[in-house]
Amino acid sequence: MDLLSLAAGAVIDARTLAPDRQVTFERLDGGEGEVVVLGDEGRLTQVVGNLVGNALRHTPEGTPFSVGVGLSGGQAVVQVADQGPGLPPGAAERVFERFYRADPARGADSGGTGLGLSIAAALVEAHGGTISAASPPGRGAVFLVRLPAYSRSSSSAPSGR
User: pLDDT digit string (tens) for 106-133?
Assistant: First the structure.
């Protein structure tokens, strides 16, 4: 499946849900063509959807964010980066834990159950990849998914699959 198409669909969905938000889409590596991985399209759509949904939910209105896709070192990369307030200190290491919420004041009725990112992490790991979060002080948050890239010219599956 092509991650470029999948991520572009998530951006279109975000723009439809929040037409007043500036959501950009970019090719991270400056390349052309598809960014192909072997995987379950529905589950990977869920991963990217969770990341984009979190950017919509946890950044103030008017705060832009971007979704990027590319290839790096034999891996397919999906990045969701915002310019919001970022994560509290220490939260980047914990956001993938089940039921963890960076803002404990947010309940299930106002901010989710704390399961979305842990589910995303489990799905990414099941596809042989990794997911991480970073939040430089005062510079927003960046979520990065790395998956084994697949070359259509290759007859074998990527390592770890």
Answer: 444 445 667 889 999 999 999 999 999 9
